């Protein structure tokens, strides 16, 4: 099988149920999720090289997230939704919430906005967070224009929170403090 097909040379691509322009809102949404998946892979590669801390749980979570991001893209690729074929479920979003709670318990209380960074793993997880937020915005735009599975939007919303918390946990595991935004007031209180 050849990797090139020449079918996109005129600026169109296939979705399940037809062909659209490559800048179609649906293609932009699942393309941004694909971009996010690449950054998740980069973050996982950096964590796998970092041997001073045990990252096994986070690496396992990131790998599962990569598969679930493929599921998100698959669900978004339907020009006409077929509820029987959707792969993203509320169980996946609920699992993210449990992981967020797990990682948040590993971090010091947050009172101010923080700057992305601290350690390389944390910085890359923050890149994942910001690309995830952009993917979520693209899915919101899609949902205003065309049929769009609601659960993908919910999953992405929770996923960006996961990346934020995982980034903070990465710094904590490496015994680095998050860098607080100096000009910000105390705006957060830890939930009990």
Detail the poorly predicted runs: none
Q: Please give the radius of gyration in angstroms.
A: 18 Å
> What structural class should be given to the helix and strand makeup?
mainly alpha
Separation, N- and C-terminal Cα atoms: 56 Å
Q: What is the residue-averaged pLDDT?
A: 89
Q: What is the 3D shape?
A: elongated
What percent strand?
5-15%
Q: Please give the count of helices.
A: 5
Placed side by side, the strands forming the largest sheet appear as 1-2
Number of strands: 4
CATH homologous superfamily name? Cobalamin adenosyltransferase-like
**What is the helix/strand order?**
EEHHHEHHE
Under CATH, the topology can be stated as Hypothetical Protein Ta1238, Chain: A
Number of domains: 1
**At the first level of CATH, what is the class?**
Mainly Alpha
> Sheet with the most strands?
2 strands, antiparallel
Helix content: 55-70%
CATH architecture: Up-down Bundle
Describe it for me?
- This protein has 192 residues and is mostly helical.
- It has a single domain, classed as Up-down Bundle (Hypothetical Protein Ta1238, Chain: A), CATH 1.20.1200.
- Helix content is 58%, strand content 6%.
- The chain is built from 5 helices and 4 strands.
- The chain has helices at residues 25-49, 56-76, 90-104, 120-145, 150-173, and strands at residues 12-15, 18-21, 114-115, 179-180.
- A two-stranded antiparallel ribbon has the order 1-2. A two-stranded antiparallel ribbon has the order 3-4.
- A hairpin with a 2-residue loop joins strand 1 (12-15) and strand 2.
- Helix 1 (25-49) packs antiparallel against helix 2 (56-76).
- It is elongated.
- The mean pLDDT is 89.
């Amino acid at each position: 099988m050849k990797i090139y097909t020449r079918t996109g040379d005129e600026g169109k691509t296939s979705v399940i149920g037809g062909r659209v322009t490559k800048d179609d809102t649906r293609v932009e949404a699942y393309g941004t999720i694909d971009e996010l998946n690449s950054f998740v892979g980069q973050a996982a590669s950096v964590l796998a090289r970092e041997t001073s801390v045990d990252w096994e749980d986070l690496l396992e979570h990131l790998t599962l997230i990569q598969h679930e991001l493929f599921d998100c893209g698959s669900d978004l690729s339907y020009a006409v939704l077929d509820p029987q074929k959707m792969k993203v479920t509320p169980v996946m979003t609920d699992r993210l919430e449990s992981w967020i709670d797990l990682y948040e318990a590993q971090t010091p209380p947050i009172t101010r906005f923080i700057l992305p960074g601290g350690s390389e793993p944390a910085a890359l997880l923050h890149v994942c967070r910001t690309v995830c937020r952009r993917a979520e915005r693209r899915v919101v735009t899609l949902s205003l224009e065309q049929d769009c599975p609601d659960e993908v939007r919910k999953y992405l919303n929770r996923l960006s929170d996961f990346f934020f918390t995982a980034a903070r946990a990465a710094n904590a595991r490496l015994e680095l403090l998050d860098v607080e935004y100096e000009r910000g007031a105390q705006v957060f209180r830890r939930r009990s």
